[in-house]
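Could you join me in thinking about how sequence relates to backbone shape in a protein? We need material for that, and I hope you will provide a protein of your own picking. Label the sequence line and the structure token line clearly, so we can match residues to local backbone shapes. Would you write everything just below, so we can both look at the same thing?
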Amino acid sequence: MGAVANVNDANLFSINRLSQMTGMARETITRKVQGIKPSGTKSGHPVYHWRDVGPALYGDAMPAAATDPNELPATERDRWYASELKRLEYEQELGQLLKAEDVRSAWAGALKAVMLGLETLTDVVERDAGLTPEQTSVIQRTVDRMRDQLYRELSGEEDDNV
């Protein structure tokens, strides 16, 4: 029968195992954990608890200021903005990012077509269906409400009639 493993040993790792897990070279890990007291030994090699070595391995990987590029040192900030420009250009090439002017132009064209259709709807229906003036008036009021609602939605105005 095999030896019973201690649950507390689950977070103990040798330099070799840390290297396999993180993809870092053993030499790099050895340098980063220098000064950290091993939590024990396993097969004659020091083992470290993850809570002790995790911050040593990754603590300096990304400075806290990295969330705000304006707080980075000048050279880091230049690299960050250069990488962002490259990322945006790449996304634009893939068609995942559109220029604001192109989007505005497309929306303007689509909304012009909708508004033209709404403006002429009453006349077309009156002519083609032979509507009475009362029926035409009902359609015109409905179209006017739709046009006003569309304007309020696009301009961000609140609807007072709700």
Q: What stands out?
A: Residues 122 and 140 are 6 Å apart (CA to CA). The chain has three domains: 7-58, 65-94, 100-155. The helical segments are 15-22, 26-33, 50-58, 74-94, 100-129, 133-155. The chain has a mean pLDDT of 85.
